[in-house]
């Protein structure tokens, strides 16, 4: 199983099997990285420009081959148990669903590591999924896997429902007279 730099498990053998579409891929199949950050990797940008900025991997392709592949989560639902995030505006409460790294990118875009790895893998790449706090702990502190058939923890359901009821009470309409009469 893959591990974090600290040595804790990430809950998956192959991060690319779980990874989604590249964050830099536009709806038209173009490489946003080459379009907006050409100065970060001029050779890569020149190759993409010569090909009309088309993604050289393409949707559903072999993401390992791209030096700038990155797949990060939207954080709306736990990948393992399906718990949905409920956020309340102007509330500093800890999120129910957190970003969980399956693979960590490097500051130099992986150039140093690319020289020593096989030619098919241009990594390391940043790959994340969303996990609820409870599943996140289970994955890091045990042998739990992100693809386990899991149900939300009872404590997680209670926290979500508590937030939903607070959300409903805050969105309820009260007239000014009802709000001011309650304070007397």
Structure commentary:
- The protein is an alpha+beta fold and 184 residues long.
- It has a domain of 112 residues.
- The protein is 30% helix and 9% strand.
- The chain contains seven helices and three strands; from the N terminus they run H-H-H-E-E-H-E-H-H-H.
- The chain has a three-stranded mixed β-sheet with strand order 1-3-2.
- The longest helix is centred in the last third of the chain and has 18 residues.
- The radius of gyration is 21 Å and the shape is flat.
- The termini are far apart.
Q: Count of DSSP helices?
A: 7
In which range does the helix fraction lie? Answer: 25-40%
State the shape. flat
User: What is the H-and-E element order?
Assistant: HHHEEHEHHH
Based on CA atoms alone, the radius of gyration comes out at 21 Å
* Secondary structural class: alpha+beta
- Strand residues, percent: 5-15%
Strand order of the largest sheet: 1-3-2
The major sheet is characterized as: 3 strands, mixed
Q: Give the N-terminus to C-terminus distance in angstroms.
A: 61 Å
> How would you state the average pLDDT, rounded?
84
Number of strands: 3
Q: Name the poorly predicted regions.
A: 107-118
Summary, kept brief:
Helix content is 30%, strand content 9%.
């Amino acid at each position: 199983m893959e591990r974090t730099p600290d040595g804790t498990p990430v809950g998956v053998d192959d991060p690319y099997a779980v990874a989604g579409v590249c964050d830099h891929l536009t709806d038209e199949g173009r490489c946003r990285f080459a379009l907006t950050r050409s100065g970060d990797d001029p050779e890569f940008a020149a190759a993409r420009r010569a090909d009309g900025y088309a993604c050289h991997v393409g949707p559903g392709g072999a993401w390992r081959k791209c030096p700038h592949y990155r797949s990060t989560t939207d954080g709306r639902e736990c990948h393992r148990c399906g718990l949905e995030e409920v956020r309340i505006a102007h509330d500093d409460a800890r999120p129910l669903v957190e970003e969980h790294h399956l693979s960590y990118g490097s500051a130099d875009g992986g150039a140093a590591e690319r020289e020593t790895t096989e030619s098919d893998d241009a990594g390391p790449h940043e790959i994340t999924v969303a996990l609820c706090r409870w599943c996140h702990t289970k994955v890091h502190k045990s042998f739990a896997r992100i693809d386990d058939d899991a149900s939300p923890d009872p404590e997680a359901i209670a926290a979500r429902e508590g937030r939903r009821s607070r959300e409903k009470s805050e969105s309820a309409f009260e007239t000014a007279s009802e709000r001011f009469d309650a304070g007397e």
